[in-house]
Amino acid sequence: MASASGGTPPGPPPGTRILVVGGGYVGMYTALRLQRKLKQRLRSGDTEIVVVAPEPYMTYQPFLPEAAAGSISPRHVVVPLRHVLPHCTIVIGEARSIDHTKRTATVTTLASGEDGMGALEIEYDELVLAPGSVSRTLPVPGLADHGVGFKTIEEAIGLRNHVIEQMDIASATRDPAVRDAALTFVFVGGGYAGVEALAELEDMARYTARYYHNIKAEDLKWILVEATGRILPEVGESLGLYAVRELRGRNIDVRLDTRLDSCESRIAVLSDGSRFPTRTLVWTAGVKPAPLLAATGLPLDERGRLRCTARLTVEGTEHAWAAGDAAAVPDLTAAEPGRTTAPNAQHALRQAKVLADNVVAALDGGPLTEYRHSYAGSVASLGLHKGVAHIYGRRLKGYPAWLIHRMYHLSRVPTFNRKARVLAEWTLAGLFKREIVSLGSLEHPRAEFELAAGRRPRPGGDDCQ
């Protein structure tokens, strides 16, 4: 078996090889459970688990807004795959295509462009597809040039640094137009990502403003643009209306039934005719399945997700499994026939457990279990001490909902190590003042050295600007 720590790419399978594509919720938790249940086979070399992931860590995405606000350190939002999966072979790279008839996956790694040997061809016996999703963008003029997403820890920390940097620009400029654009922040998308990111960052920026001699909290302009008539649809209509009132009560401009038509030249043009010069445009208007799925030859639904059975097998295909955002899994608890489970962490974590158990059962020739889970509810943060929650039919708002939000996600973040560190940071944050430092130079660490060496630094790509 190839070594997970030595960096040796996997060769021909020594026995049964399980290939897990993706290192997110489903990928990591499936591999973790397989690692536990197949411990003896892994030690003997009869079975090998190979995990292919683009990053060497799993990101706990519900904590991204708090990381952006500085309530949690970035390193505590991610879980190193090599640490939690010591008995798996970890390959950091991108799966480009899969030929399931030949049971091979084509993977490019960081070394593919360095050693001249091209992409890896990884053979497998059982395939677990969990590549997750990517941001769903629209052909909005200027979006690719000036927008930033909010799906990764790099985007979250970059956005935090950017917001504080814009306040520095506004404080120093003598041009009213530059100041106005720097203090205008536009978020597109009223789902979890958009609302929580905006609420946490607005909280952070309002606190930070007290340390500027010429910027007041009311000088900052926050705009939330949502194409439908409500935000946070998962928590229900009444709590969604409460969230709108809460945000508007903080002078956040919530625009429902409104679309972003253009953001060329750093001017956000909305479908209601409004125009906002801005140096910050955050796009959180939905996700779509990973592009890899189109290169698998496996059956897809109309939204580009893998068609799956309730046993989490790919429909009409043997030795192929899927779950999470990339899979259309029948919802056996739904009253309406034909519904699929929602693409959220609640289902992904539970599907990973069933998927791993079914893979082991298939290897042993045993019966497979159907995935069945009634949706428990939703929680969302609206900033420090503010939130909404709809749990088992009960609706909560304000501080109780915020507390439940924290308790729930603390219980779900992987490993005791991460739970302890996050809890310690929350405790310290309650005792001391917020950190208001921008470390934007982290994005271009060689800039100062290049300048000292007489070379003009390459222009930064700080273009959520």
Describe this structure in words.
The protein has helices at residues 25-37, 39-44, 64-69, 81-84, 143-146, 153-172, 176-182, 192-208, 237-249, 345-364, 399-412, 416-431, 447-452; strands spanning 16-21, 47-53, 57-59, 78-80, 89-99, 104-109, 120-123, 126-129, 133-135, 147-148, 184-188, 221-225, 252-255, 260-262, 267-270, 275-277, 280-283, 287-289, 306-307, 320-322, 327-328, 377-381, 387-391, 394-397. By secondary structure, the chain is of the alpha/beta class. A seven-stranded mixed sheet has the order 7-6-5-2-1-8-20. The longest helix has 20 residues, at 153-172. The model is unreliable at 1-7 (pLDDT under 50).
Distance between the termini: 47 Å
Report the CATH superfamily of the largest domain: FAD/NAD(P)-binding domain
Using the coordinates above, name the CATH class of the largest domain.
Alpha Beta
How many DSSP helices? 13
Class by alpha and beta content: alpha/beta
The strands making up the biggest β-sheet line up spatially as 7-6-5-2-1-8-20
Q: What does the overall shape look like? A: globular
User: Could you tell me the number of beta strands?
Assistant: 24
Domain FAD/NAD(P)-binding: 17-351
Family: Belongs to the NADH dehydrogenase family.
Protein name: NAD(P)/FAD-dependent oxidoreductase
Pfam families: Pyr_redox_2
Short description:
The protein is α/β, with parallel strands linked by helices and 465 residues long. The chain is 31% helix and 22% strand. InterPro entries: FAD/NAD-bd_sf, FAD/NAD-binding_dom, NDH-2.
